Amino acid sequence: MEANKLKREIEFKGNLFSKHFIDSKSFFLYQFRQLPSITVVRNVDHEKVYKLIKQEYSTQLKGEYHYSSIAKKKPLNEKEESILWLEEEILMELGDGYCEFYFHDSESALLQQIMNKVVAMRGMQRNRPQEINLITKSDYGLELTKMDVKRTRLNLDLFYENDFGEVHTTIIRRLNKKDDKGIVLLHGLPGTGKTTYLRHLIGKIKKRVLFIPPDMATQIANPELVRLLIDHPNSVLVIEDAENIIMQRQSGNDSAVSNLLNISDGLLSDFLNVQIVCTFNSNMNIVDKALLRKGRLIASYEFKKLSVQKSQQLSNHLGHKNIITQPMTLTEIVNQKEPAFVLQERSVIGFRRDEVEPVAV
Description:
Helix content is 32%, strand content 25%. The protein is α/β, with parallel strands linked by helices. It folds into three domains: 2-120, Double Stranded RNA Binding Domain (2-Layer Sandwich); 131-303, P-loop containing nucleotide triphosphate hydrolases (Rossmann fold, 3-Layer(aba) Sandwich); 309-360, no CATH class. It has a seven-stranded mixed beta sheet with strand order 7-6-9-10-11-8-12, sandwiched between helices. The longest helix is centred in the N-terminal third of the chain and has 15 residues, at 2-16. It is elongated and about 85 Å long. The mean pLDDT is 81.
């Protein structure tokens, strides 16, 4: 008996904790000594499903295991992943936007009852408009890390030129449309309000927002990232500083544009339904023409310096007393009281290079 117990422990020790949390398939095999059937229900809220089980099926709940975190400005012990062990040899795994059922008796009345109730809860996710999901790489592959975004409420008519309102309306309408796809291109000089607008936009999107770092964006169609997108369909993917993945393709150049096209309007887009928002500082001349094709491009907009009239209007609104005589960027208008820095040149002595140092003016 002891030998069998030891063999069993050795057999499952390597797999039961093969990820950052308990592996549900291994746990089912370990507990019930047979392989499970699996049914997944997507687009459901973790906490709401857990609350359903605790309230209506507490007497059938034999055990629960949670992977939780404590973060600033969030509830204590916020559950990120849970495994629930129910009677009739049923396991449930709850995670970010999904619920998986592990079982061997598909005719179980308890299984069918719970599954029907969870299916009816699809789309009932928590509304957390100022949260983005940063795509990160860990020892176990790609995963989402939830991040809070600074809340920004903007009077778009005040902070941007008059022609931006119609573009914004189009962006909001399309990004909140279910099972949609396409690309939004936002570009312009640094300091003209692209990131400020992104913060405002995230608060208006009723879908999950994913943020991919620029250094990972070139691998946008690798299988691991595609798998992550499959697990989170109907999402909005935000890529800042996207110059490297939108540049025109050249002969012999393995550009990331092809990958971007597949995600946004190729075969992959038919089941991913992921919309993409790209920001960059360059002008539209560098953009591959395929990205601008009708039906693929949701909207594009160039953020410029505000006109003298708009700059003066915003400056007055912010309480500044200066008279504006030339177009200014949003950053320049907001930070008028901050000292400006220029580079002061030093003359060359002998064979020394020019040296510069910042001087407040």
